[in-house]
Amino acid sequence: MTNKNILTWGGLVLLTSASYFFSDSNGAKYSLYIIIILTLVKVFLVALQYMEMKKANRAWLFILAFVLVVYAGSVIALYS
What we know:
Elements: H1 3-23, H2 31-50, H3 58-79
Helix pairs in contact: 1-2, 2-3
């Protein structure tokens, strides 16, 4: 594995651990928003590093961002 892959993997582990600790907070007001933001960051890390979208056309990144914003908005709308 290269250094970038190891750093990305370490970041994913830290973000997953942070999501776990925020989900354990009993009804914290902003825990849903924090978990959604952490999830979006994890998706972008995976897409850019492991799916190699950083070499793809920028239109694909905008499409990915649009889909993720719609997903996050719908989850927040359902649970708020």
